[in-house]
Amino acid sequence: MEYHDLLILGGGPAGLAAALAAREAGVEDLVILERDRELGGILNQCIHNGFGLHTFQEELTGPEYAGRFIDRVNAAQIPYRLDTMVLDLSADRIVTAVSPRDGLYQIRAGAVILAMGCRERPRGALNISGFRPAGVWSAGTAQRLVNLEGRMPGREVVILGSGDIGLIMARRMTLEGAKVHCVAELLPYSGGLKRNIVQCLDDFNIPLLLRHTVVEIQGRERVTGVVLAQVGPDRKPIPGTEKQYPCDTLLLSCGLIPENELSRAAGVPLDLVTGGPQVDQRLQTGVPGVFACGNVLHVHDLVDYVSQEATQAGRCAAEFLRDAEPQGRETFLKPGDGVRYTVPQSLAPALIQEPVTVRFRVGAVRKNCYVSVWLDGVRVLHKKRPVVAPGEMEQVRLDPALLTPAVKTITIGLEDA
């Protein structure tokens, strides 16, 4: 059996940044395992710009952003294995993988960083009536077809879900000559960034229908149309509000799910809200020596935040390899009013030497409010926010001077101004 000090599962933006940080922190024996035929992950098909504003202070396309990190990985001579599918991860950090070149093999690792990314929610999870005709695609699959393979999924398009991928594909399909009739969203607000609503829908006069959903997909061999209906506060269709839209393509942008089958196999405790591992401030999961970062941990809105988080995971994995003594978790973070989750979910105060960044998402659009932090019920932070929205990640930085071992619970919530 092979042995390596550090294994990084995934060669996308999270895995690349984690590998670079670990190497800079002194880890020489590390390997990236990537199932695709090239590094870069989902960024390779994201040919639109808007990446890198925080990391490089300039606007890049997805492939350009990935290319910067790939060049640095190659310059650092960090080894990686492509076309390699990881089949299993055990609690004692034994990875089982398979590739066309090496066949089936196992690697024991001193530490593992989970950076497998996320996947799209499929049609089967949506319970939409109708047959299974051609023309129903996830938005990410359609993006790959158009941007990497040069194929058009269709010409008359309806998009269900207003996540960022759905918004971006509304613009992309329009630029390629398709007619996007509308983007329908079940919730009373969009799940995407405000800039994408403006640049991808408003600029192209594409309607955004809030509180709407698809209740029927028409067509047996190929999609011939869809029926949309308004939904009430209970998110159930309102009878009598149905409207038919003739189309040959339905794109689904109904949420992303962290790719955590390997995490479950290793016994990593998962957060019921994020779908990703529960971690402490070092991004270490409940299994010692197993770290998580990027969209496998929780779905991010900006790749720059993925890189920042992965950099931290790489450094902390290097620290673990130098001192693998497990540390108890003594302080827990709780989402308060208006907050859905926090990452990390717990802290080890004895190890905190610098400010801790806590990222979180809110449950609904709130205007003119405060983001507040309480330590054992005592408010220590009160930050004014003109508006917060579920589509945009929020964060606070906690001063290490406040995070003493005496603190048992940290609560982050919203307060009206």
Describe this structure in words.
With 417 residues, the protein is α/β, with parallel strands linked by helices. It folds into three domains: 1-120 and 256-325, FAD/NAD(P)-binding domain, CATH 3.50.50; 122-254, FAD/NAD(P)-binding domain (3-Layer(bba) Sandwich); 327-417, Immunoglobulin-like (Sandwich), CATH 2.60.40. It is 19% helix and 35% strand. It has helices at 13-24, 62-75, 139-147, 164-175, 194-201, 261-265, 303-322, and strands spanning 2-9, 30-33, 49-51, 60-61, 80-81, 85-89, 94-99, 103-114, 118-120, 129-130, 136-138, 156-160, 179-185, 208-210, 212-218, 225-230, 243-246, 249-252, 256-258, 290-292, 331-335, 339-343, 346-347, 356-362, 366-375, 378-388, 394-398, 409-416. The strands form seven sheets. Strands 1, 2, 5, 6, 7, 8 and 20 form a seven-stranded mixed β-sheet that branches. Strands 11-18-12-13-14 form a five-stranded parallel β-sheet. Helix 1 runs parallel beside helix 7, helix 3 (139-147) runs parallel beside helix 4 (164-175) and helix 4 (164-175) runs parallel beside helix 5. It is globular. The relative contact order is 0.13.
Relevant terms:
single chain, alpha/beta, FAD/NAD(P)-binding domain, 3 domains, 7 helices
**Structural class of the secondary structure composition?**
alpha/beta
CATH superfamily of the largest domain: FAD/NAD(P)-binding domain
Number of helices: 7
CATH class group of the largest domain: Alpha Beta
| Average pLDDT taken over every residue | 94
Can you give the helix content as a percent range?
A: 10-25%
> How many discrete domains?
3
Measured distance between first and last alpha carbons: 60 Å
- Strand fraction: 25-35%
Tally of strands: 28
What would you say the CATH architecture of the largest domain is? 3-Layer(bba) Sandwich
- Rg value: 22 Å
Q: What overall geometry do the principal axes of the alpha carbons give?
A: globular
